[in-house]
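Anyone opening a protein record will find just a pair of labelled lines. The record below illustrates this layout.
***
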Amino acid sequence: MRALLLAACAVSFAAAPRAHAQGPAPQSILVAPAPAAAASEKPDDLALRYYASLDQRARVRAEFSRLRRLYPNFEPPADLYGPRRGDVDEAGLWELFSSDRLDELRENIAARRKDMPGWRPSDDLMQKLKQKEQRNQIFAFWREGRWLDIASFARDGRFFIANADAEAQWTIAEAFARTGQINEAVEVYKAIFASNEDKHIRLATMQKAMATLRMSDVETLLIEARKSSKGSEDEFAEVAIDITRARIVAVLRDERKDDISADELQRFENFAKFTREPQQLGLVAWLRYKRRDFRYALESFKAAIENGGDAMIAHGLAHTLRALDLRREAEEVSYAWRAPLVNNGILFLDLLERDLTQETPPYVEPARLARYAAVTIESASGEGAQGLGWYAYNSCQFDVARFWFERAVAWFPKEATLYGYVLTLKRLRKDKEALELINRYDGLFPKLVELLFPDDYYHPPFPCDSRVAAKAHGPAVKMAGYVVPGPAGPALAAERDRLRVEAEKKEATTPDAAKVAAQEQQRERVLKAARGKFPLAVTAENPLRFAPLPLVAARSSSAQPAPAPVAAAAVPVGLRTEPLAGKAPLVARRVPGVGPMPSERYGFILSPGWNAVDLASWPPASEQVAPTGTQWANQEADPAWIGQQKADADTQLTASAAEHVATAMAPRNRYGAAPPPPDLAAVLSLPSSKQSQSR
């Protein structure tokens, strides 16, 4: 301190002669030079910092007052009570910081503050230490997969995104995206683009965003990034193919409304053809399939398969072949790829099922039937079993039909399956079993009840009632555990054509005039015929239980047939019986969304449903628009099925259907009293429905 005072005095005495020589008054020596010194010299704050390091506040205030008198514009330094870089040696501390020994660094800081009262580490060191500790915490959460903790850590304000490095920001954005906080994730990515002009960081940020966000959100980032960039529009030219690929995926997932431009798509198609990668070729093929460009899609799917495409590529190939009406080729593709992807097995069963369920069954090779039966047994497919059941029934193989209908009812009891099973039982003179089924499913399947309560329409004779029944099919093949129906013969088709001609002469599509004239007599006959058969108290559950069998290779026609299968041996699968309080109702309870029952036209009123509704609903649920997101809706959205099916859905109710609905919905008395005449005008104003395709 004494040295400082001596230096100040030396400066004053040295300046005095010069000032006196220039002529100013002697009293201006201490005052006049201050403004000039303040403008040209930097104040020496060494003494001020010295007193501050000793925490001597009174001396600090005195020294500050002295400096303010000499330099009116003087302001105390921001780091007055903290050492400047170089004033106190922090090299060891920075070395610990650089080597990530943060715990040891904290211990050294605490020890130094204990040894040097009033000392504090530099703000730069403490700020960087805090940021590194926060960064380490984020990546510790990341290694453990604790995405919600990362998002909470960032949202709580304990981590300042604007000051973080890009890698930490990417992790935070991914955590927001994985936890459903999409807006926050987008904001983090925007902050990176706004604070970085490094092209590598910007490019990597866009790639990270495409990996974590929907393409609709990435599009907003593309716009923001190009606005804030100093470059041209091709800033992301290196990932242009990736951007197009993401847009194609968004279109396939129905997440993008705008279609892809022709030039952009052409560049991606050229890239796919050049790389010959099956995934890229498959994307092009699926996009063409969605656009209904089936010919181009077929070539792309074939190219993808040739270059190592997987089972999903084969699935698209089979669907495309089906859309081009190359059903036999689609059948072969789906069968070959059924093992690695269950969707192909399902498609294989669906493809041949259409032929199997035709009213006039076509000739199907025995090997194809055996292959179809083997896959059906292995997968326990109710759809496949009912297809084989209908094929056997329509070709007059009733024992074989019963075998497959039993399994179809056990695996998937739907209306067409139950209807075929009841018809088969009636053909085999199993009337008691048939009546039990009809009564069990009253209130759910109208076509079953129609077997007891006719619809007043003329129906042509069944071809199997004629003399051609014996030669209507080839021999059935008995396998180990199941039986394969024989192929239908041409004589059956000829007999069906002959009966169809007779049906056209009798105007089979209009009500029979004689029956309409004698409606009351017909009503009495129907009620008399139904007495003792309806209603009956039956168990409410499906008693059939069949487990799937291992796949058994189909025997060739030259091999010896295996022993007959034991069709009656049901395999229990441990299902609990349905609880039933008291006796089963004589008339089934109403099921919401099913529609009117034929028995209601004759005064048989169903019991109320669980929601106390006892009126018929129309159109039934099977005729309504499929709910969004269901498999039914996805099938109807399939471009290969759009067309006639959609036109059928828009067909207006016919007068006969309206009469049927109005009769069922009119006020009725229980068991016997005739309903009042229907209001056809009111019923015909109901919304349109699909034409029922059930048998």
Summary: The radius of gyration is 44 Å. The CA atoms of residues 278 and 309 lie 5 Å apart. The first helix runs from residue 2 to 21. The mean pLDDT is 76.
